Amino acid sequence: MNKARRKILRSLCDHIGSIKEKVESVMDEEQDAYDNLPENIQASDRGDLMMQNVDSLQEAVDGLEDVYDKIDTIAAC
Question: DSSP letter at 44?
Answer without folding.
Answer: S
